[in-house]
Amino acid sequence: MRPLIAIIFLFAPSFSQTPTHHLSSLAATERAFAAATRHIGVRNGFLTFFADDAIGFRPGVGPYKVELVKRPQTPQPLPTILLWTPTEGDVARAGDLGWLTGPAVARENKPGGKDLYYGQYFSIWKRQSDGTWKVLLDAGIETPKFTGDPESTPFQPHALFDGQPDSTVRGTQDELAAAERTLNESLERSTSEAAKWYVSSVRFHLDKRFPITGTDSVRAHVRSLPPFSHRSLASQSSSSGDLGYSYGEFIQNGTTMYYIRAWKYVRNDGWRVVVEWRG
Fold it and tell me: In the 8-state DSSP scheme, what is residue 155?
């Protein structure tokens, strides 16, 4: 078995594992993805670790790999390497869906090479039929400088991570779609009303700035937005009904923009947004 394929199957989760083990295996798969990409380049690394049904947002919403295979092969040795690591994430109790985020750096691939880009990535992962984790949605933002060292920053579960294998906290796909619809209607009608849909440990990712974290900061930002129309394109919950994602589009200053959200089903509150990317 080739080393890269062996790495993928090494971190394949099992339904018999606990949520904590599922999250550990997901973070380990992300690190394996980053390590492989450091040697084989972004194009080949992403083709290996992205799901066949992964969605991209440039140009427009569509199958990500269709656009990725059009890119030319990266010359070897790689002139630039992309470094990243997961520093926060969550996974469904069923181990079939999860999300991760962390710092990213593009660096010249030579001794003393300078940093060319700082960013923060956010990805939605889906368990495949063969037991492996693959990226379904991925979006990054550029940040003014480091949000953390990709080679040393430790990983921690999201504050709402539920490590218990059995729980009565469970939502439905229909409830998630309804929450997504209500949030988007609120953003069009009253951004102040929309702010309640974000949890206290929420992350908000916008390009050219550091991630906005925490309820007060995120809600203040949301309230400052002018109302504008959003359209949901898809949403999906985990089979355990505790984690989900959605994505869609909105018009800002005449330009079509996109969003990705990670949702958590919270006791007494229902579905709430834990991470949102806009770009």
Answer: P
